[in-house]
Q: What sequence folds into this?
């Protein structure tokens, strides 16, 4: 008696991805988060992965038992949730990087690609056999419609992943103008994730092109890549998403500048030299501005215009100068480098080491030895 083999290795990866996605989606409500919306968006993303992967399995595994109803509804669920992954991921990234992020009416526009493809599938009555183009006698119009569905499913997620990268880049710029300390590892991980999703999207589109031109059967590699991305996203959500520094969304205002740039600069420098506000480890631009009695937008503008830098770089430059003073003084030889970086306003050893090396050309330990030897 011969046994029918229902799953090959590629299908096993898909099944693992489906199972893991379902578990991760169901577990999200159990986690404590700063923004409750973010965990539900992430759960929705994992759900979209599970449903779209089930669709892939039903479309391409010809050994699975099926029914006419399943063949009829599979293209709707597969295409719809494939197109929802991009918007949901973009909204998730926004929810963990923007302070007080919430869903707005304009976000409904992200549903348009899914609705459009849903209507296209309905209009041409595209079932599973038609979707895999294994039905004889397909009209040229229907063929073009099916082709359009496939290309939209490949290209639109790539566009959203690229959009997500620009959200991360703009967030990175903004958070450095508002904070003196940021979680750099979390930001690096966020960059890596968005770039990885872009790479996966490009690979998927390229595979489709190769399949059309040369009939190369490399599409299954998508399953392995997507499984790795799934695990990586979960790792990020657990390890970094709750500690990432959020950025306050700038709202455009028509308020005119209340003070001259020279006066603003003078107050900023008084806050630095007299009040030594840079010694407060987690100070942000709003707290700094409140301390010197100015609107934070004016302070941020002045730092950018007069000093040619952002708040993050501006504050940490003075922290390095404070650290140099401790390191060069023999009276503070009993202080460790960790003690000095904390006294100088830093709260991250890696950030301190990076800034110090960039501004002085030496590590803190090398700088201390050099300055002490010069004084003797």
A:
């Amino acid at each position: 008696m011969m046994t029918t083999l229902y799953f090959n290795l590629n299908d096993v990866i898909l099944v693992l991805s489906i199972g893991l996605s379902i578990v991760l989606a169901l577990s999200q409500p159990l986690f404590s988060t700063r923004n409750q919306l973010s965990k539900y968006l992430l759960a929705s993303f994992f759900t979209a992965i599970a449903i779209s992967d089930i669709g892939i399995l039903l479309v391409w595994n010809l050994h699975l038992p099926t029914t006419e109803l399943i063949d009829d509804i599979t293209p709707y669920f597969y295409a719809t949730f494939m197109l929802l992954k991009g918007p949901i991921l973009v909204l998730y990234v926004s929810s963990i990087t923007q302070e007080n992020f919430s869903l707005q009416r304009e976000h409904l526009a992200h549903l348009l690609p899914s609705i459009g493809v849903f209507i296209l599938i309905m209009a041409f009555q595209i079932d599973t056999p038609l979707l895999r183009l294994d039905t004889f006698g397909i009209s040229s119009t229907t063929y073009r419609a099916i082709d359009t569905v496939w290309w939209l499913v490949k290209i639109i997620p790539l566009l959203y992943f690229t959009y997500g990268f620009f959200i991360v880049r703009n967030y990175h710029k903004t958070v450095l103008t508002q904070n003196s300390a940021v979680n750099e590892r979390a930001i690096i991980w966020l960059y890596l994730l968005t770039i990885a999703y872009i790479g996966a999207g490009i690979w998927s589109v390229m595979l489709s092109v190769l399949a059309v031109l040369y009939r190369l059967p490399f599409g299954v590699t998508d399953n392995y890549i997507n499984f790795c991305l799934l695990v990586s996203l979960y790792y990020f959500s657990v390890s970094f998403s709750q500690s990432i520094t959020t950025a306050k969304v700038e709202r455009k205002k028509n308020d005119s500048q209340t003070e001259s740039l020279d006066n603003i600069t003078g107050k900023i420098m008084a806050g630095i030299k007299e009040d030594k506000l840079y010694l407060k480890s987690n100070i942000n631009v709003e707290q700094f501005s409140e301390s010197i009695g100015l609107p934070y937008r004016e302070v941020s503008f002045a730092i950018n215009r007069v000093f040619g830098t952002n708040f993050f770089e501006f504050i940490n430059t003075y922290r390095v100068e404070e650290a140099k003073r401790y390191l060069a003084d023999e009276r503070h030889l009993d202080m460790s480098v960790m003690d000095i970086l904390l006294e100088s306003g830093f709260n991250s050893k890696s950030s301190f080491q990076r800034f110090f090396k960039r501004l002085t050309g030496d590590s803190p330990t090398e700088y201390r030895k050099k300055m002490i030897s010069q004084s003797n």
Summary: The mean pLDDT is 89.
